[in-house]
Design a protein that fits this description.
This protein is mainly alpha-helical. It has two domains: 153 residues, Glutaredoxin (3-Layer(aba) Sandwich); 179 residues, Glutathione S-transferase Yfyf (Class Pi), Chain A, domain 2 (Up-down Bundle), CATH 1.20.1050. 34% of the residues lie in helices and 5% in strands. Strands 2-1-3-4 form a four-stranded mixed sheet. Helix 1 packs parallel to helix 3.
């Protein structure tokens, strides 16, 4: 999801910070759902819908992970935008000619305008686009991954894990709500604060919840139950960006993730689990935040650090028990056309 769609007051043109104001995210999205019964007009159907995402974006990264874990690559195709965008739209910079090869558009905005001419809100990723008419169906990223787990079961791989098991949904929903408010969105509340007071409040809220999570994860391997669930996916994408961008760029600098023992080990455990770390592109992540948010990084300088090799160090989380995939199995390696270039991930040597 792009972050510039989310303020009650208007910031300066092309900016992300509203002077004197607290950052408030607009969570009103295109809530149309793709379901087995097609009740919103969009039935689940293999090869009909294209997931448009960006590796830089934490909200889109969730969909990449869940799609991988469930084995939906053949059922739902993937279009990737580049890491930077202007105030108007995400763009398909990574494709030959700058045009998505399936949707035949250069700007994601075209798919939004196809659905609602003159679409008045932010052009966000992730988005599911109907390839039949090229119109966005939904950009409701929170519901999107839940529907992958519950509505697309006819197309998931053999051995797909249960990421949203029915008996744990209340617990998952409860912690997801807290993690979204205090952590996923909390880092943005710090970074896009328009006053010292707003920043101070956001900073205190963020680290209070990170301390709670660090304590919780001291005695249990995963957030809910003894397997990976949707809750772990949602926390992971923020943790994966913490030291590389949030700590410096968003001023969430009480300490590094690497200085929070349980959270750091938990994040490494997930990163080293197939389907998680192999979706993370640190080069694109840093390019997005440091190049796009020019009102808080006016020089556009992208830092060289931090050293990423720690992500591959031993985590010892298996000593807490738990089975990452439950009765399921790890996903196979990524499709060749979806592999993160080695230079953009964590060094495997040196």
């Amino acid at each position: 999801m792009s972050e510039h769609d989310a303020k009650r007051a208007e910031p300066v043109p092309g900016g992300y910070v509203t002077p004197g104001a607290e950052f408030v995210r607009d969570t009103r999205y295109l809530s149309t759902r793709i379901t087995r019964d097609g009740r919103d007009g969009y039935p689940v159907e293999a090869s009909r819908y294209r997931l448009v995402a960006a590796r830089a974006c934490p909200w889109a990264n969730r969909t990449l992970i869940v799609r991988r874990l469930l084995g939906l690559e053949e059922a739902i195709s993937l279009g990737l935008c580049g890491p930077t965008h202007d105030a108007d739209s995400w763009t398909f910079d990574l494709d030959p000619g700058g045009v998505d090869p399936v949707l035949h558009i250069a700007r994601l905005k075209d798919a939004y305008d196809k659905r609602i001419p003159g679409y008045p809100k932010g052009i966000t990723v992730p988005a599911l686009v109907d390839t039949r008419d090229g119109a966005v169906v939904t950009n409701d990223y929170a519901q999107m991954t839940l529907d992958f787990s519950t509505e697309w079961t006819g197309f998931t791989r053999d051995g797909a894990p249960l990421l949203y098991p029915e008996q744990l949904r209340d617990q998952i929903d409860e912690i997801n709500a807290t993690v979204f408010s205090e952590v996923n969105n909390g880092v943005y509340r710090c970074g896009f604060a328009g006053s010292q007071e707003a920043y101070d409040r956001a900073y205190d809220r963020l680290f209070a919840q990170l301390d709670v999570l660090d304590e919780r994860l001291t005695t249990q391997r995963f957030l809910v139950g003894d397997t990976i669930t949707e809750a772990d996916v949602r926390l992971f994408t923020t943790l994966a960006r913490f030291d590389s961008v949030y700590h410096g760029h968003f001023k969430t600098n009480r300490n590094l993730l690497a200085q929070m023992p349980a959270l750091w080990a938990y994040a490494r455990d997930l990163f080293q689990t197939p389907g998680f770390g192999d979706t993370v592109d640190f080069t694109q992540i840093k390019a997005h935040y440091y190049l796009v948010h020019r009102d808080i990084n006016p020089t556009g300088i992208v830092p060289k650090g931090p050293d990423l090799r720690g992500w591959r160090t031993a985590h010892h989380r298996d000593q807490l028990g738990g089975r990452p995939f439950g009765d399921g199995t790890p996903p196979p390696p990524p499709r060749p056309d979806e592999v993160v270039p080695e230079k953009d991930g964590v060094p495997t040597h040196g």
